[in-house]
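Running this now, will post back.
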Amino acid sequence: MIPPERDISDIVSGDILDFSSGNNRLNAAGGDAGIRKLADAFCQCMETQPELAVIRAKYPDDLTDFRETLATFLLTWIRGEVPLYTKSNGRRYLNTNQRRVRLNSAEKAAWLRCMQQALDTQPLSEVFKRYVMVQLTLSAEMTRKASE
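Update: finished.
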């Protein structure tokens, strides 16, 4: 019998999951619809969780454009395709967008907490959720204000 794989987050899985390709990541995320549901859940968490007020204050009252930008960014990253995001937003990463939001440490932590809560509402594998959080933690760090 092959021993179960244990990832760095201590999740045990009998399957070896490969998130190196865009197709594998997109399938694990539930396709385009799954990513849009994740963006919706992120905005819902931001709107309803009082402890996330620090991050909610960074965005306009109407989250329609932000929701679409977040979904587009996530789809671009998940698929591994740069053109979809760069076509409307400039460079690939959220932190290099001219309309970027710079975060301090507390705001970064709130943004990541919001994403974790949004992921927790989705019917995705725990390994994939951890993968997403590791990757987005790196992106969130790049948006942190350099003055800190």
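The helical segments are 22-28, 31-48, 53-56, 64-79, 83-89, 105-120, 126-143. More later if anyone needs it.
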